[in-house]
Design a protein that fits this description.
By secondary structure, this protein is mainly α. 75% of the residues lie in helices and 0% in strands. It contains 15 helices and no strands.
Amino acid sequence: MTDIAGASATVRATASELSARDRRDFRRYLSGYGGSTFGTAFTGVAVSALAVNLFHVSGGEAGVLAAGSALPALAVAPVAGLTAERTTRPRRILIVSDLVSAAVVGGCALAVAARVADFGWLLALVIALGAFSAISQTLLIIHLNSLRTQSLPVARARTQTVAYLSSLSANAAVGPVISAVGPVVALTVDAVSYLASAASLGVIAAPDRNPALEAGSAAGSFYRDIGDGFRLLFRGRLGPVMLYTLVAQSAFVGIGTLKALFMLQTLRIPLSLYSLPTFCAEGLAALGSVLADRALEAGWPANRVAAGWWACGTVGVLFMPVAFGSLTVKVTLLCVGVAVPVMGYAAANVAVVALFSEAIPENVMGRAIAAATVTATAAATVGSLAAGLLADFLTVRGTLWACAAVGVAALVLLFPVMRLRAMAARPDEQ
């Protein structure tokens, strides 16, 4: 097995040692991160809305579309994780990924404008962007090692805040933009966001390098290193966390898969209000991440913070299937049913990042993130396909109740998470 006992070298400095260039580089990095996240979030919401309103997809097709955005990560995430650990030029890969993503979205916009696009075009778009997103999101996390920062954990926490704010902006914009100027302009805005991300990363002055590689960490075989990532997660103390993720992720992604159909067809929510629940969710997600961070700073155990917020999110999903009545009542229940779960899972994610930091050495973080991505993506794929197919046999509302029931049943899996002791990466668990 690959030696994973050490930690990668990172560039640290006190506040007084940070130069104006260091701070400027970090701001540019955050701009690039935000632009890429905006594009990913904008595409996800826009594609769901276009699929229902423009191409009139069925429940099964909605499931295929959701699975299409997730499946590439199963193949690409392991390669992305090891690439993040081994590449000598991570920033160059990030810039190329943004440029290709912009070209793919721009090509789809031209196809919609020429009226030659169909469901197959949307499916090809989400598959392509799913693959490039798996590469860029892993590299963006690891690439912070090459910048001069006062604290790497604090810097990574700030990227999460930027990610939530970018998603908030994307979800706030997508509905009104599509309603006001149509899908072509909406997709063009999306393409421009990727170009802006590439431009921000391209002007960073710090050398494009990989400190973990420079520290002399030996690269093992491809398959063995991938296997190490899964062993780190499932054979160590993170096992209960990953087991809950498998079950709960399937249920909650199933609910998300049917959200567009439920809102636009079952409840007849106007397209201009389509992104309102997600907008509320992103705002509460930012709040939840701050509250979770404060709890961790106050000394609360990360495992209990994660379990508590997961339980809170599970209660929230019960509000979506009961949406009925006037437009105001339906939108209110939808906002609660979408926003509270997202807030809970965003806050839990902050605690899970802390659990990862305690249990996984920095120089193998790439393969661990890749294994976690594959696990979550596999669960999401099963959930989206099952929910889409079930919706074709049952009603959409009935399928939402079934997914919510699975999420509630999964709460029993949180008891082992609550009993986790303080974690530290130990050789016998690696």
